[in-house]
Amino acid sequence: MMRGAGLQTLVNFLTLLPRAVKDVDDPIGVREIGPLNLDPVYDFIVVGGGASGCVVTRRLVETGASVLLLEAGDDGSFITEVPAAVGVTLGSKLDWSYLTNADGRSCLGMQNDKCLWHSGRVLGGGSTINGMLYVRGDREDYDSWERAGNPGWGWDQVLPYFKKSEDQLNPQYARNRFAHSTGGLLPVGDVPFKTPLSDAFLNAGKYAGFQVKDINTGNSTGFTFMQATIKEGKRFSTAKSFLRSVVGRNNLKIVTKALVEKVIIRYDKRADGVIFERLGAKYKVRARKEVILSTGVVGSPKILMLSGIGPSYHLKSKGIETLVDLPVGQNMQSHVGTGEVVFLLEKPVSFNPLRLFSNPFNLLAYLRGDGPLGAVSGFEGMGIYRSGLDSSTSWPDVQLNLISVTPGVDGGLIYRNSLNMDDQMFSKWKPLTLQEGFTILPVIVHPNSRGSILLKSGNPKDPPIINPNYFEDPLDMEVMISAIKFSLKLGRSKFFKQFGSKFYDRPIDFCKKFIPYTDAYWECAVRYFTYPLYHDVSTCKMGPSTDPQAVVDSRLRVYGVTGLRVVDGSIMPNLVSGNTAAACIMIGEKGADLIKEDWRYPT
Question: Which run of H or of E encompasses 495?
Fold first, then answer.
């Protein structure tokens, strides 16, 4: 079994060697060697080529404006093209591989009580290394944004921007022209392979009283088979979807391996450009019109604070002069779950990697664009619903994910390392190596707990301090335990029992002082097997000037500075009721239109 340095060597070989020959499967076409040939000034500088940044860049390039896109990572690797390889690149150089700050309240079964915090360090950002799932969220999510003082961000106003990107590949969904569209740059379709467990999950949800439906129409409550940004068995990141076809345009310059250190703020509080480091050399480039930060929930607040925009008390403690005192890095909200709801199976119907990937016919199927290699490594069903435990809200607050593997299925090669699980915690799961089974992963999608991003120092190369504060609010744990109980009910239903399903009855060693499977036990288990989803938002919160937590206005302009916007998931006032990638792409589309409107470009 390969661990530590051996695993990293394997990952590095898989992700780096193909680039030495030719990036056959993902030819984004970005030149990474040779002189930079930078212009001294561009109309727009976009910092971060992630889920939102690639979209903004594409739309601004279409106007004819000159655009410089700076990405800290490189242009990717062929391995990210294979949907079933999700997880292989987690922890590689395509990933920032942050660690959370130990708080004694969560991630207790992880090494040094720290959860891994994955974030794409590559063109496409998270869309290049994530699970590819396309979930828009609920109408109430966006209507609440608008009610909070953000005009133009209600569901009816953002729906056209979801549709603008979309190329819906499911003919039944595509017929709903109100909710979906075809012909956009981003393919969205059904995952091309599923095990029998997928239908069992949907039938169990239906038996429990939920509709099996398209959850991307505004009412997200229900159960569904996964849709993902996959076409013909290949991942479509935002880099592939939005950038690849414009890489050669004269008005676009893409620079990879470029670590932006700060935004240059003039004496009159106008963003004038950026300073970045690449391969040991420093560069200064000016922006004629705007600097746009799209580096995500961690990167955008980090760059703002390094530039003197943030909480004055915190900046002062790091020796940084405060130019604008704003609550940057605060109010962070994160989806979080637990991996403890695991069932074993008597019949070979799960997404068992040995059985599936050793079958040569499945390789042939992938070459045709289907088969298990074109699936999201066992993510096969989703349920979204409202627990009813928080009377102050009306949105759904729980997401259930069917994962047709167990935490021990690969013997600790990938799954364990992707979570940073320690030896004692993994001892529970090691006996399940290559065994048939499945996980129902319950997730809180609207937590009351709030976290933060802080600077470790004034050095741009130092990782930030990430405080997710999972389960700080007692109501979050109450919702989680309720979701665990419902997950157990689904897994014990007749629809799974036909395959010989049985709950994996092995209590966590750390929690043996509690009676197994009581609420007290489950609380302990959740605190040890904390499962981050890497759906994190709101560190540069959008809100009116009267909102003391707001960093940007409804046009995504940073308060107190001109010529500077943030366009990514960090601006969300509150989390959405589902995976955040689709919402980040929508933010990119809408943000680009706001910029074009302000500069009188056609929209």
Answer: helix 494-497
pLDDT at position 485: 98
For residue 433, what are the contacts with CB-CB under 8 A and spacing of at least 6?
408, 409, 410, 411, 412
How many CB atoms are closer than 10 A to CB 462? Answer: 12
The band of 322, judged by pLDDT with boundaries at 50, 70 and 90, is very high
List C-alpha distances in Å: 452 to 361, 390, 469, 540, 592: 48, 23, 8, 11, 27
| Each residue's pLDDT tens digit, 568-591 | 999 999 999 999 999 999 999 999
Tokens standing for 198?
A: 């997928």
Tokens of 92: 């590689």
Q: Do residues 372 and 85 make contact, with C-beta atoms less than 8 angstroms apart?
A: no
User: Looking at this protein, which amino acid is placed at residue 295?
Assistant: T
Non-local CB neighbours of 258 within 8 Å, separated by 6+ positions: 70, 71, 72, 276, 277, 278, 283
CA angle 395, 400, 404 (to 5 degrees): 160
**Beta strand 41-47 pairing with 281-293:** parallel
3-state class (DSSP) for residue 565: strand
Q: Are strands 342-344 and 437-444 parallel, antiparallel or unpaired?
A: antiparallel
**How far is residue 556's CA from residue 419's CA, in Å, rounded to a whole number?**
33
What amino acid occupies position 176?
Answer: N
Residues 6+ apart with CB under 8 A from 21: none
Residue 382 CA to residue 41 CA, distance in Å, equals 47
User: Taking 80 as the threshold, does the pLDDT of residue 53 lie above it?
Assistant: yes
CB 399 within 8 A of CB 387: no
Exposed (0-12), middle (13-18) or buried (19+): which is 148, by Cβ within 10 Å? middle
Please report, rounded to a whole number, the percentage of residues in the chain having pLDDT higher than 70. Answer: 96
Which one, of 462, 421, 136, lies nearest residue 298 by Cα? Answer: 462
Is it the case that residue 494 has pLDDT exceeding 80?
Answer: yes
For this structure, is 446 an active site residue?
no
pLDDT at 27: 56
Residue 3 has pLDDT above 60, yes or no: no
pTM value is 0.95
Look up residue 167 and give its two tokens.
């190329």
Dihedral of the alpha carbons of 57, 59, 61, 67, in degrees to the nearest 10: -30
pLDDT of residue 117: 97
Rg (alpha carbons) of the chain, rounded to whole number: 23
Contact 24, 30 (CB under 8 A): no
Q: Which residues contact 191 (CB under 8 A, 6 or more apart)?
A: 83, 225, 226, 227, 228, 230, 374, 375, 376, 379, 380
Q: What are phi and psi of 594, to 5 degrees?
A: -60, -40
pLDDT by residue (tens digit) across 280-291?
A: 999 999 999 999
Average pLDDT, rounded, for the chain: 94
Inform me whether the pLDDT recorded for 10 exceeds 60.
no
Nearest Cα residue to 217 out of 147, 155, 151: 155
Report DSSP letters for 427-490, one per residue.
Answer: TTTGGGTT--EEEEEEEESS-S--BEEE-SSS-TTSPPEEE--TT-SHHHHHHHHHHHHHHHHH
Q: What value does the mean pLDDT take over residues 202-215?
A: 98
Element containing residue 310 per DSSP (H, E): strand 309-310
Q: At 517, phi and psi to the nearest 5?
A: 70, 15
Q: What are φ and ψ of residue 207, in 5° steps?
A: -65, -30
